[in-house]
Amino acid sequence: MDNVLLVDTAFFTGNFAPKYSIQGAVLNEQQEAQIPKRKSEMGSAAAASDLKQMNDLSRDWPEIVPRTPLRPGYEDTRMNYRNVTSGGPYTHIRVNIYPDGGIARLRVFGVAQPTPPAADTRLDLASLLTGTVCVDYSNAHYGHPRNMLSPGRGAGMADGWETARRPDRPEVLLAKSDGTIVVTGEEWAIFRLGFRGALEEIGVDTNHYKGNYPDSIKIEGLDALGDDTWMTILNPRKLSAHKEHWFPCSSGPVTHVRVTIAPDGGVSRLRLMGHAVAQ
Ligand SMILES: *[C@@H]1O[C@H](CO)[C@@H](O)[C@H](O)[C@H]1NC(C)=O
C-alpha cells in the first residue's frame, strides 16, 4: 500500500538526527513485552543488553524506509516527507536514528486495517478507526467528507463535511408533501467501508451547523462482492439544525456507502451502526 511519512525536525537546527530509518512489525502482546523498558536520562546511551534484546526482536522486521538523510529544523526545511510502499499492515514501527540527535514529530499516514469483529458485535462501520475511507465526492468547499468519520463529536464547523451553497438553488423554496424542499441539485460523497457489513441504524449529526445544515439526506449502499449496484438504504429524510439524528434501517451486506445531501450544506458526523458480514 502507498503511504506517506513525515519526519518533522522542528527546532532541531543544530542537533537534528542526520539520518533515520524505519522498520515495520506485527507483534503480539508477548513479543511486545520483550521490548526493553528504558527511562529518559540525559546523556545516556542504550545499554548493550538493551540493544541486543531489541536487535534480536527486530532483526527480521521489514525495512520501510532505508537509511535516509534528514534536513535541519528550520521553517523551510523541517518537513521531511517521504512516500513509502510499506507492505503491512503493521502493529508496530521501529525508528532508528544515526548516530544520534533530535526529531520533533513523526507522522505515519495510512488506513487502519483492524481484524473484523465477530458477526454479532455491533459496531460503527463508518469510522476511520475501522478502516473506512472517503473515495470520492462532488464538493468539499468548506470541509472534507472524511471528517464525518472521525471519533467523537465535531469540534466546530471546520470539523465536518460542508459543501459550497449550490448556485442553482431555486429562488423561491417549495416543500414537497414529506416536508423536504424541491431542489434542482444535490451533493454526494462515497465511502469504502473497512469491513463489509449490514447496517441497522444510521446516525447523522448536524452539530454546529445552524443556518447551513442540509435540508435532507439520503443513504445508499453497494456490495462490490455482490451485484455491484446502488440500493437505497435510507430514503430522503429531513434534517434539523445542530442536532444528532438517528434513523433505523435494515440493509443487506454493503462494502460502499453513498451519502447524498440536498441541496447542500454541512454534516458533522456520520455513524453507520451494524455488524460485519464475512466475505
Ligand atoms: C509523493 O507522491 C506524490 C504523488 O505521486 C507526489 O506528488 C509527491 O511529490 C511525492 N512526494 C515526495 C516527498 O516524494
TrEMBL record:
Coiled-coil boundaries: none
GO molecular function, one term: allantoicase activity
Name used for this protein in its record: Allantoate amidinohydrolase
Pfam families: Allantoicase
Highest taxon of the lineage: Eukaryota
Family membership: Belongs to the allantoicase family.
GO biological process: allantoin catabolic process
Residue ranges of domain Allantoicase in the record: 6-112, 131-276
InterPro entries membership: Allantoicase, Allantoicase_dom, Galactose-bd-like_sf
